[in-house]
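Chain A, query sequence.
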Amino acid sequence: MEFLNFALSPFVAGQHSCKRVLRAGLAIAWLASVMFTAPGFAAPPATASLEWSDVPAILARIRAPQFPDKNFEVTAYGAKADDETDSLPAVRAAIAACAAAGGGHVIVPAGTYLLNGPIHLLSNVDLHLAAGATLRFSGKPEHFLPLVLTRWEGVILYNYSPMIYARGAENIAVTGQGAIDGNARREFRGWAMGISHLQDKAQELSRQMGAAGVPIAERKFGAGSFLRPSMIQPYECRNVLIEGVTLKDSPFWVVHPVFCTNVTVRGITVDSLLINNDGCDPDSCTDVLIENCRFHTGDDGIALKAGRDADAWRDGRMTENVVIRNCVFQSKINALCIGSEMSAGVRHVFMEDCRVEEGESCIYFKSNADRGGVIENVRVRRVQIGQSRAGVVRFETNYHSYRGGHAPTAYRDFVIEDVTCADATNYAVFAEGTGESPIERVLLRNVTVAKAREPLFLRNVASIRLENVRVNDRPLPECPPETPAGTPMLQIRL
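Chain A, predicted structure.
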């Protein structure tokens, strides 16, 4: 009962919840937290909030790795900048020599270098691309074997190697003013563009294995499965830096750190418009800084992940302490997302001073009844949006539910402020919780949407407060009513 009394108190000092639905909604949420029936799933307890004043402490822990002042040019090991000779053996030899010497910089001079296979980074190695340098991968699936341990759409398994990969390394970097070309538009056309549906069988099998707890050693994909690899994936690494480079035409997610600590993604340009080309997907990572980046993507710009369903509940590693600032988004799909693979939980996320030129949902939290987990303690401020084609701010709890599970995600503690949008083709604010787990403690402050088809869609939202929120040049009520039952929903992308 002490917990219930606490839950019914104002959710943040000075940010009083609307009494209309607070008591009933939070009581339902509390009851749900002790009555979930999904096997192996326990509702996550609430954690202490972090505020903007806590960001300096997070940033103090995020330090880019430093490298010895030693250079290893790939051309000295036989690399040819002719876009025809396979330079992979030379690049691998330079990396090995650099690591054996205690670390340093593997330098790729100007020119285009063909790589018939993946680069595997080692500890204390900075792969540095000079201005005018391009690493162009072959894009042929057989070149990305043998299998490596990875996480694919939230499930741990063995699959084709990402194009640049490291496992269990410390102090690694990909830097410079050069470009990395995944070559998926040309060579991977059948995979990344025309016949990506061939992965459907393996995709479903991977999800079944994760749900059933099949031993990871038995989850082997690769040849014949069509599970496309990410472009850059440090896996279980510490002290990671990706800076300055331009990344294009990835067959799948572009920058995908998994189970990493102390990650900096700074000043990169992602220009990759193929299917599933998320720009940057930190996945069960801690202490992450993403800043001064431009994302021109075929899918989400940034999507924070933390695994899928029961596989992630067992693993339990969250994504937390993430700072995103001074980034520009031009996305075919969404800008900033959390989810949908977020079952271990995502918390303590700060985003500021960003610009969204266009996207579908621009500040977007997505999950479904299979996922479980929690999205909590999110702070967003000073975001300028040009066009939003689905929802400027969107909370989605029914995103492509596959198995009809009974593990609703907990959504709680969001403050979104100082946001402007010129044109919202559909909703300004969309929030649809569930009866078992209503969305809790949302504050929107100083939000202006100049034009929107519909200002609000609200259902199963336990507590939402709007302070100085204007849509279509009209102020919205501080305690808005829920959307009446039976009101048709606009046809927006799931």
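The chain is about 15% helix and 40% strand. Residues 1-17, 19-37 have pLDDT under 50 and may be disordered.
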